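Researcher: We plan to redesign the surface later, but first we want a full-length starting point. Tokens attached.
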């Protein structure tokens, strides 16, 4: 009998947090202003969603305008960080639909709740503060792009979280996110399930291209999936 799922790793923006695509709208604005481009939000989302943000900028420049210029990418990145910080101070940010409810349910099921993100730690912690989410109460851990050597689609952030809680088997972990690269991250980490959600960067057909185990439209849909997937060991 399979062991019970011990951890769910969630992406932040677009998955557990509703911030109306502020991060990618900001990225679009800064790339266009700095480079003199006219990239659309759809292009930014297609090539940058879910990635560590410097990596996202490099990918967008290469894929959309055929530019490989590390100095330009760094200039855009620094401007992006400051612009995003200012935007997050004034814009409304909310928990995604049913995020708080799901965190409570998983806690009651003795399943760890971990957030991971392509943001750096400073940005991620500012979001938690604005949402009044506290590590150790609402979630069990936060892992950010600045905590690990390699970012999505590499499994480093999930591996980091497993190590933190001494979970040696990746098949005791579920990953859920709103972008293709989230799904790839879960697959590369060997997670039991890699689940896409349609509340953020990529729509259902885009998510399907990554061959997730499931695609859901609401966070609470994960509960019956987890319950169906495993039966906790019984104590005799």
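Model: Full-length starting sequence:
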């Amino acid at each position: 009998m399979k062991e019970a799922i011990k951890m769910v790793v969630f992406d932040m923006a677009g998955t557990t947090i509703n911030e109306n695509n502020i991060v990618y709208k900001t990225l679009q604005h800064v790339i266009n202003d700095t480079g003199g481009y006219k990239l659309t939000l759809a292009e930014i989302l297609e090539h940058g969603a879910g990635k560590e943000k410097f990596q996202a900028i490099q990918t967008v420049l290469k894929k959309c305008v055929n530019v490989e210029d590390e100095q330009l990418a760094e200039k855009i990145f620094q401007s992006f960080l400051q612009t995003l910080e200012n935007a997050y101070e004034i814009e409304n940010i909310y928990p995604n639909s049913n995020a708080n409810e799901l965190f409570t349910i998983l806690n009651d099921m003795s399943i760890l709740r971990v957030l991971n993100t392509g943001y750096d730690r400073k940005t991620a912690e500012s979001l938690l503060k604005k949402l009044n989410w506290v590590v150790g109460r609402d979630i069990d851990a936060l892992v950010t792009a600045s905590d690990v050597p390699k970012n999505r689609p590499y499994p480093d952030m999930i591996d980091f979280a497993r190590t933190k809680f001494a979970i040696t088997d990746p098949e005791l972990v579920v990953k859920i996110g709103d972008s293709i690269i989230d799904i790839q991250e879960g697959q590369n980490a060997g997670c039991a399930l890699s689940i896409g959600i349609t509340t953020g960067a990529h729509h259902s057909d885009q998510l399907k291209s990554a061959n997730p185990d499931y695609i859901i439209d609401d966070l609470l849909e994960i509960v019956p999936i987890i319950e169906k997937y495993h039966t906790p060991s019984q104590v005799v």
